[in-house]
Specification:
Layout lengths: L3 E2 L9 E2 L16 E4 L7 H9 L2 E6 L3 H7 L11 E4 L13 H10 L2 H8 L15 H12 L1 H13 L3 E5 L6 H12 L4 H9 L5 H8 L6 H5 L10 H15 L2 H7 L4 H11 L6
Helix pairs in contact: 5-11, 6-7, 6-13, 7-8
Protein name: Protein-tyrosine-phosphatase
InterPro entries: Prot-tyrosine_phosphatase-like (IPR029021), Tyr/Ser_Pase_IphP-type (IPR026893), Tyr_Pase_AS (IPR016130), Tyr_Pase_dom (IPR000387)
Pfam families: Y_phosphatase3 (PF13350)
């Protein structure tokens, strides 16, 4: 599969999922859905390049503590870009802990406690649904723990005025899950979805080098060998096999948590190449 990489300073895992084939012989349109690693610390020319690509909506899948630790990215200052924060993990803060208290709490924790809360994929937390593949277990748990965020993220993609960009920290696990669901909802070829998910491994060294440059992620990413960070095709296969076995298909599963036929129609209109194109 040809990967539509977009090489911009400050980003190492940015790509357009356009051209992915669908089961009916069509394809995903270019310039509609982008996926990326963390959007922090972007130079001015990269911000402008993203705007030139037609970016209007950013779906940020990071936790509140990740966002607080990393600080606001430059795209938050762009009036033409809407930032939609939809964490896929259970909230680590109570509803009473407001945003203004977030920094105070972080400063009162030890580095180990911050890592445990800001990075809920560490060994401190176990997934709600467990299958043989550990990463797939976490992906399935996103659906069980945060169906609200899953649906909201997919609806932003469907209704974005321009290009929608989905990101987390590395742009491979949480991002890979939401993008895979969006693609499958509009009829993308399952093997092409698996290949897109696995493509992050091509740039895994650059991804880890970038994350290890920040206090938020350094200890976690450097504590494991590079191979453990890779996005293996087997992981997405295990994720999809479980959904098919337990629910029949991705659309059937999402229908059980509130996704509608109208949502699918909007997503198809957004992502698919039209007959007039």
């Amino acid at each position: 599969m040809t990967v539509n990489w977009i090489d911009l300073d400050g980003l190492v895992n940015l790509r357009d999922v356009g051209d992915i084939p669908t089961t009916d012989g069509g394809s995903i349109a270019r310039g509609r859905l982008l996926r990326s690693d963390n959007l922090q610390r972007l130079p001015e020319q990269t911000v402008q390049a993203l705007l030139d690509l037609g970016l209007t909506d950013v779906i940020d899948l990071r936790t509140d503590l990740e966002v607080a630790q990393e600080g606001p990215g430059p795209l938050t200052k762009e009036p033409g870009v809407s930032i939609h924060h939809h964490s896929l993990f259970k909230p680590s803060l109570t509803e009473e802990q407001t945003e203004s208290k977030l920094t105070t709490q972080i400063n009162s924790l030890s580095p180990e406690e911050v890592a445990a809360q800001a990075l809920p994929w560490t060994e401190v937390v176990r997934p709600t649904i467990e299958v043989e593949d550990d990463s797939a277990s976490f992906y399935l748990s996103y659906l069980a723990d945060r169906p609200d965020s899953v649906l909201a993220a997919l609806r932003v993609i469907a209704t974005a005025d321009g290009a929608a960009l989905v990101h987390c920290a590395a742009g491979k696990d949480r991002t890979g899950t939401i993008v895979a669901l969006a693609l499958l909802l509009v009829g993308a070829e399952p093997q092409a979805v698996i290949d897109d998910f696995a493509a992050s491994s091509i740039r895994i060294e650059q991804i880890i080098n970038k994350l290890s440059g920040t206090e938020t992620y350094r200890d976690n990413v450097l504590s494991r060998p590079l191979s453990e960070h890779e996005t293996r095709p087997e992981t997405m296969i295990a994720f999809l096999d479980y959904i098919e076995r337990e629910y029949g298909s991705v659309p059937e599963l999402l229908a059980k948590i509130g996704w509608t036929d109208e949502d699918t129609a909007a997503l198809r209109a957004k992502l698919l190449v039209s007959a007039e194109s």
